[in-house]
Automatic annotation (TrEMBL):
Its main location: membrane. Belongs to the NhaC Na(+)/H(+) (TC 2.A.35) antiporter family. GO terms for molecular function: antiporter activity. It is a multi-pass membrane protein. Keywords: Antiport, Cell membrane, Membrane, Transmembrane, Transmembrane helix, Transport. One of its GO terms (cellular component) is plasma membrane. Coiled coil: none annotated. The keyword Transmembrane helix applies. Residues 163-467 form the Na+/H+ antiporter NhaC-like C-terminal domain. This is Na+/H+ antiporter NhaC.
Length: 489
């Protein structure tokens, strides 16, 4: 029976690159030109990687074992993503997120239009976990302010995009933030905290520019359009504001500061928000539970004075969101990408590719630059932020560990060169969405989307200076390397 056991071979560089090149070509054509969904394309690429693994002598059981192992290791992060959807739905129906949006809009001042657009959009994105939702709701309101004041629309759009992606990047509710932590095996809150090294300097530079530009360009003669007041009046009509609505936010912030387990903290905050929805907003138990599953919808509002069909379209854009179901597309892409990485890993193809790329790496700075180039190439070719986070994260993690660098340096660099770069590339889904939603071409708002490109600058500087670079402790480094060896075997 053992006579026919096929000898397992190491792939050469060409065979190792075939699945990667296939995925790039297929995604470029299918996703980029024919608007095909990315998941089946990744599966086809996985099949190609599997055929090469079989050719090299690995069995189907070897392939499935590698894929299963990787999915098993990412299951805690997958559960966090599902919990995020649960919490967003609960925070919407419990009034937490609407209250933050309402009071954010109240602080608009024409003299500080660019800065306030940046800050308020960032706040909304942090507490909703969605850059698209923040730009498509509050961002659109600020564009209305800019039109009414006859000011620089590109500057306001750039400020909105910067704020939306600052918030998305640092939000524990964001799918991309969770995916970056997932793909590199980093604790979610460790990842968010570590991103402050590059994100805060970018934030302050952007804020200073928007403050100065606001005084020079806008002045104090502008007026706020009626749409902003309509949104605020509608929110005031729907919800009964209560300080207890902020308790779920306090719990999450406390849990993050004290490093409490993520899922229990999120669930506790969600249950309190659900209770707020039932006690103060008179939603039924069925409605609050359905909000955690399918997301909140304004059709759930049963106040006699409110007519959901009569509201402006910005209100549903702003409020209809959340629920565990909303995370399913992100989870599907994640699982498909993990299957591809697992199939590549079983034949050692990923290691062969990475070793060839890392031959030019001489130190931490060049490793960071290599990561940035890899991520920029991936997002530029695939036009998909989720894929561009998952693949480099999986492929480069071991290279950081072997050099004694904590993987959170990788997760931060991935966000700096994928998450916030995507909206300033015209051919990506994010770039097209922002341009269409805000009514300003991508290349026009690009110079003003300051936060979106300064992150790479600071990532590179810190890489070469060593500032903000976390090393692995000796015991942690040995543990990670032993895990890597077991995965390769």
């Amino acid at each position: 029976m053992g006579r026919f056991t096929k000898m397992k071979k190491e792939p050469n560089l060409f065979l190792a690159f075939v699945p990667v090149i296939s995925m790039i070509v297929l995604l470029s054509l299918g996703y980029g030109f024919f608007d095909l969904p990315p998941e089946p394309i990744i599966i086809v690429s996985t099949i190609i990687a599997g055929i090469i693994a079989l050719y090299l002598g690995y069995s189907f059981e070897d392939i499935m074992g590698s894929v299963s192992e990787k999915i098993g290791k990412t299951m805690p992060a997958i559960l966090i993503l599902i919990t995020v959807g649960f919490m967003i739905g609960a925070w919407m129906i419990g009034g937490t997120i609407p209250m933050l949006i309402y009071y954010g809009l109240k602080i608009i001042n024409p003299e500080y239009l660019f800065l306030i657009a940046f800050l308020v959009t960032a706040i909304v994105a942090i507490f909703t976990g969605t850059s698209w939702g923040a730009a498509g709701s509050i961002g659109v309101a600020f564009m209305g302010v800019a039109i009414g004041m006859d000011t620089n629309l590109a500057a306001v759009a750039g400020a909105v995009v910067s704020g939306a992606y600052f918030g998305d990047k640092l939000s524990p509710l964001s799918d991309t933030t969770n995916l970056a932590a997932l793909s590199t095996g980093v604790d979610l809150y460790d990842h968010i905290k570590h991103m402050l090294y590059t994100t805060l300097p970018s934030f302050f530079i952007a804020g200073i520019v928007y403050l100065i530009a606001g005084f020079i360009i806008t002045g104090s003669e502008g007026t706020i359009p009626d749409k902003v007041f309509t949104i605020m009046d509608t929110l005031d009509q729907i919800f009964s504001w209560n300080l207890l609505y902020l308790l779920p936010l306090v719990i999450v912030l406390y849990g993050a500061i004290r490093r409490k387990p993520t899922i229990p903290v999120m669930l506790l905050a969600s249950f309190i928000a659900m209770a707020n929805g039932m006690v103060f907003e008179n939603f039924s138990l069925n409605q609050v539970v359905m909000a955690t599953l399918n997301g909140f919808d304004i059709s759930m509002i049963n106040k006699a004075s409110f007519d959901a069909s009569s509201v402006i379209k910005d209100i549903p854009t702003l409020l209809n969101r959340g629920g565990m179901i909303s995370m399913m597309n992100t989870l599907l892409i994640a699982i498909c990408a993990i299957a591809f990485a697992g199939t590549m890993m079983v034949s050692n193809s990923l290691n062969v590719i990475i070793q060839s790329l890392l031959k030019v790496v001489k130190g931490t700075g060049s490793l960071i630059v290599t990561t940035i180039v890899t991520c920029l190439t991936t997002i530029g070719v695939t036009s998909n932020g989720q894929i561009s986070i998952l693949i480099p994260g999986e492929a480069l993690k071991d290279a950081y560990v072997k050099r004694g660098l904590h993987p959170k340096n990788l997760s931060r660099t991935i966000e700096d060169s994928v998450t916030i770069i995507e909206p300033i590339l015209p051919w990506t889904a994010a770039g097209a969405y922002m341009a269409g939603t805000l009514g300003v071409p991508t290349l026009s708002y690009l110079p003003w989307a300051i936060l979106c490109y300064t992150g790479i600058l600071f990532a590179t500087i810190w890489g070469f200076t060593g500032f903000g670079i976390t090393k692995l402790e000796n015991n942690d480094s040995e543990k990670q390397q032993n895990l890597t060896k077991r995965m390769i075997k």
